[in-house]
Amino acid sequence: MAEVTEAAVLAALRSVGDPDRDGNIVDLGMVSGLALKNGHVVFAIEVDRDRAARLEGLRRQAEKVVEAIAGVLSVSAVLTAERKAKGPAGAAKSAEPQGRVQQTKPAVPGVRAIVAVASGKGGVGKSTTAVNLALALKSLGLSVGLLDADIYGPSQPRVMGIKGRPSSPDGKRLLPLENYGIKVMSMGFMVPEETPMIWRGPMVMSAINQMLRDVEWGELDILVVDLPPGTGDAQLTMAQQVPLSGAVIVSTPQDIALLDARKGLNMFRKVDVPVLGIVENMSYFLCPHCGERSDIFSHGGARREAEKLGVDFLGEIPLDMAIRETSDGGHPIVVSNPASAHSKTYRTIAEQVWKKVAAEPRKAPPRIVVE
Ligand SMILES: Nc1ncnc2c1ncn2[C@@H]1O[C@H](COP(=O)(O)OP(=O)(O)OP(=O)(O)O)[C@@H](O)[C@H]1O
Ligand SMILES: [Mg+2]
Question: Which of 51, 70, 203, 211 shows the greatest Cβ crowding within 10 Å of its Cβ?
């Protein structure tokens, strides 16, 4: 693979002009913090505060020209509003993260950390991982909530074994439903599981926002969010608007081979959400009869891929009937068989996730607000 050089990136960025001034963003000294690693490119574009809101197009254009360079696997450009643009590009290597321009994502009162479980594509076991992770976090003594953000095909009511509708004693806020000591909110509580749901763009966000903010979560150490599959606009908006402390990427060995996992990763990098690590699901096959292990999908790819991408590898969960039967039956393995090897693995994953989010300082509100 062609090696990507700083010079090549800067040359490409010289084709991007500042819409308000004569000259390109490199020679105007607007590019800073350029970092290259194994084909992944990150940089900041420094702009004045008052222009930030208008320059999303410029940011995208800059990403696009760098994406076109041979050997570039991902590009992430952020707009930073520093007091003053510095000297030429490359010289200023310190894009201060506190200068980042983001949409406001007000915290959810009482909820200490929000962690999304996501994947590049569907059917890889996000919901199964989300529920077992939530239960494993609970078993560590934490207060835990589970938000099923898959409004297209909610699965948590079934997986958590919860039926019923949330009540609203004050007519304004909903009380989440509860099982196994975990508070759960899902669109599946509002509409029967089989009803196909058609959502228009803006409705998606308002549904998620209501499930996040109009629900009496109480005091939670951690809220686990089961995201819908894919990395399209809806998921991106969600990742952008929910104040996430981090994301866990679930992938199967095949999906890693097909690079779908990277899409999930890049989506979070784009919106500045730390990726806490990768879980390899359906990693190998455990025969229910003889207990023999077969690596049907060349397992281990996730660990190598994680290494390559500079992301932590959190653990591997085999393809095992017991996992499917328990979660599809509404009593996930971490509660139905806490002593099993799989439950132990989920607890190890949970410990790592909690260690990472607990170490993070509570998210300060963004300093710069774009109206
Ligand atoms: N490790 C595993 N071993 C056996 N079966 C599994 C495992 N992980 C998930 N499954 C099963 O695979 C199916 C898909 O899993 P799940 O619903 O968790 O995936 P998902 O990524 O949430 O899917 P979607 O993209 O549709 O939301 C379910 O029937 C689930 O029980
Ligand atoms: Mg799911």
Answer: 211
* Ligand 1 probe mutation, 119, 127, 250, most atoms within 8 A of CB: 127
- Residue with tokens 């058609």, as numbered in its chain: 198
Say if residues 243 and 104 touch (Cβ distance below 8 Å): no
CA distance 99 to 117: 27
Q: How far is the CA of 266 from the centre of ligand 2 (A)?
A: 20
Q: Is 229 in the pocket of ligand 1 (CB under 6 A)?
A: yes
Q: Which of 215, 134, 118 is nearest to 168 (CA)?
A: 215
pLDDT tens by residue, the chain, 371 residues:
578 899 999 999 999 999 999 999 999 989 887 877 778 787 888 888 778 778 888 988 999 999 999 988 888 777 776 544 333 443 333 333 333 334 446 788 899 999 999 988 788 899 999 999 999 999 999 999 999 988 878 899 999 999 988 998 888 889 999 999 999 999 888 876 666 666 666 677 778 888 998 999 999 999 999 988 777 766 777 777 788 999 999 988 876 655 666 777 888 888 888 999 999 998 777 777 777 777 766 666 778 888 888 899 999 998 888 999 999 999 999 999 999 999 999 999 999 999 999 876 554 433 343 44
Rounded Cα distance between 218 and 221, Å, is: 10
Contact 146, 221 (CB under 8 A): no
State which amino acid sits at residue 43. F
Ligand 1 geometric centre to CA of 105 (Å): 30
Distance 131 CA to ligand 1 centre (A): 11
Reading the block at residue 22, the tokens are 């004569």
DSSP secondary structure, 36-52, as one string: EETTEEEEEEE--HHHH
Ligand 1 pocket residue status of 231, Cβ below 6 Å: no
The reply to whether ligand 1 has any atom less than 6 angstroms from the CB of 127 is yes
